[in-house]
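Researcher: Quick test of sequence recovery. Tokens follow.
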């Protein structure tokens, strides 16, 4: 697993293998659905809730493209069972703009041209905002270390780090 993401909530008790009702709280909305207990949070978001902003890169915990927040802490949704998130608040890239305004980190990514293909970008932004909340962006070395779980095949790292520094220095990390 990438080093900077939190561990996901644990599943308790024996579940499945059949589909079961589960209620997910995502971006402030409640979604009652039925899932097999083996379904990852990533697949639940993309395939059951049509929230396709969260990307599947490796599906094995090494790229960070699937980063979301559970109770405000960044997790790898490909390694998180959807059912373990019942009773917790899930936040995805679709939920961070407010009242039609981009989140300052989204705007900084645009302003700094911090993407090329854009595939890693939702995960990068979710990690970047969390990074500031965690207080792990004090130095350039901190930023590099604590964003190291989010891989960018287009090598946009200098621009990503510039965007993070701008939001950090504006003291508006959200
Ligand atoms: S898709 Fe989850 S870490 Fe790569
Ligand atoms: S912008 Fe293409 S992988 Fe990061």
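Model:
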């Amino acid at each position: 697993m990438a080093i900077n993401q939190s561990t996901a909530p644990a599943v308790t008790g024996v579940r499945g293998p059949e589909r079961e009702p589960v209620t997910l709280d995502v971006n402030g909305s409640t979604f009652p659905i039925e899932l097999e207990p083996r379904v990852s949070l990533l697949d639940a978001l993309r395939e059951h809730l049509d929230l396709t902003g969260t990307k599947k890169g490796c599906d094995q915990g090494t790229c960070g493209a699937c980063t979301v927040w559970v109770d405000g802490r960044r997790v790898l949704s490909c390694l998180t069972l959807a059912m373990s998130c019942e009773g917790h608040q899930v936040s995805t890239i679709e939920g961070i703009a407010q009242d039609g305004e981009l989140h300052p980190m989204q705007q900084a990514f645009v302003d700094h041209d911090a993407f090329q293909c854009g595939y890693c970008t939702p995960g990068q932004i979710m990690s970047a905002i969390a990074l500031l909340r965690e207080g792990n962006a004090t130095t350039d070395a901190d930023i590099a270390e604590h964003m190291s779980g989010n891989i960018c095949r287009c090598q946009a790292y200098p621009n990503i780090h510039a965007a993070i520094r701008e939001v950090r220095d504006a003291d508006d990390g959200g």
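The pocket of FE2/S2 (inorganic) cluster (ligand 2) is lined by residues 115-121, 152-154, 156 (CB under 6 Å).
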